[in-house]
Amino acid sequence: MAEIILSHLGHAYNAAPCGPLDYALKPVDLAWEDGKTYALLGPSGCGKTTMLNIISGLLTPSEGRLFFDGRDVTRTRTVDRNIAQVFQFPVIYTTKTVRQNLAFPLECRGWDRARISARIAHIADILDLTERLDEPAKRLSADLKQIISLGRGLVRDDVAAVLLDEPLTVIDPQMKFSLRRKLRDINKATGITMILVTHDQSEAMSFADEVVVMKDGELQQSGPPEDLFARPANAFVGYFIGSPPLNLFAVEREGDRLVAPSIGAGLTMPGTLSAEHAQIGVRPEHIRLEPARPDRAPAQVEKVENLGLDAVYTLRSHRQETFKVKMRHRPGLGAGDAVSLSVDPSDLLLFGDGQRVTPAEA
Ligand SMILES: Nc1ncnc2c1ncn2[C@@H]1O[C@H](COP(=O)(O)OP(=O)(O)OP(=O)(O)O)[C@@H](O)[C@H]1O
């Protein structure tokens, strides 16, 4: 188990003595605590796999350094890093039993039989595999095969971290939830640092203690899921985190206030930030719909998406801006209905040139 430090770590696949660098991963500083769960999140091509491959040792970074528990492992071979990896598709021996699959990494290390048996019993207990140890691996469902892939990594007692590269992609949607919870349980039971690569924000948010959001090879924000939701560093994070994403509204200046006419709400912001460069963001969960009344901003319901208990309402403001509201499903409210909007000022987020600003900073 290890604390992992990325120190000005970056990579350009075209790194050359001269010419401009085309960074797949722009230099980044991050510190990951021993025993926590992390998710690398971002759209395709943002550099997640590049970062993961540098951590596993499959790729040597073109700049910066990587430390495991203070030890510089930047140029250490993968086999000497004690990393367990779980890939998109389960990597197991289908001709072997579950027990034989778990035993294999230990046999390769020359452990004696008694030590191997004790270790397998311990890991099988954590993974709920005790009853299945003598089953042929090929008969197991995809999610159990992934659990065994994980078990083959965890069975060693020297694992510094588990790297999970989109391991839930092949899992049935209804099994994803339980496997994700299982991964968290394993993290709590073993205290092993886990790093998950995903482009699915709900997967990242429900798995990780901290989510690292990336875009175009650049770190956007890193922090606990609730921080990313409540205080996104920029409009991209606001949009990428949350479902539906953050609503962004155009603003106008009214004296020392920046106001979003669509929602009839604004913030005090003395003159330095011009309205053309600013937007006000509001989470769909933070806008309330009320019966139409003259003292509130009006809007019209365009579409209702019923989610069961909740619904997502698509609305059009009197300024012709489209936005979404997520709240308890209200059966009487439908397309074409007129409503009024209300927003608590403390739920308004202000962005200047795409970066979040607070009134004190502007
Ligand atoms: N071996 C390589 N040689 C050159 N460029 C590469 C190589 N591997 C990746 N890249 C480029 O580096 C950038 C980051 O790729 P990377 O695979 O790290 O992103 P990702 O976020 O993991 O994407 P995905 O979710 O699609 O796997 C992309 O522009 C990609 O085209």
What does the model show?
By secondary structure, the chain is of the alpha+beta class. It folds into two domains: 4-240, P-loop containing nucleotide triphosphate hydrolases (Rossmann fold, 3-Layer(aba) Sandwich); 247-357, Beta Barrel (OB fold (Dihydrolipoamide Acetyltransferase, E2P)). It has helices at residues 48-56, 98-108, 113-127, 142-154, 173-190, 201-207, 225-230, 235-240; strands spanning 4-12, 23-32, 37-41, 63-68, 71-72, 83-86, 161-165, 193-198, 210-215, 218-223, 247-250, 252-254, 257-260, 265-268, 278-282, 287-291, 298-306, 310-317, 322-328, 338-343, 349-352, 355-357. 36% of the residues are buried. The chain binds adenosine-5'-triphosphate. Adenosine-5'-triphosphate binds at residues 13, 24, 42, 44-50, 199.
The CATH architecture of the largest domain can be given as: 3-Layer(aba) Sandwich
Biggest sheet: strands, sense, closure? 6 strands, mixed
**Could you spell the SSE succession in H and E letters?**
EEEHEEEHHHEHEHEEHHEEEEEEEEEEEE
CATH class identity of the largest domain: Alpha Beta
Number of strands: 22
Intertermini distance: 43 Å
Query: What percent strand?
Result: 25-35%
Q: CATH H-level name of the largest domain... which superfamily?
A: P-loop containing nucleotide triphosphate hydrolases
Bound molecules: adenosine-5'-triphosphate
Rg measurement, Å: 25 Å
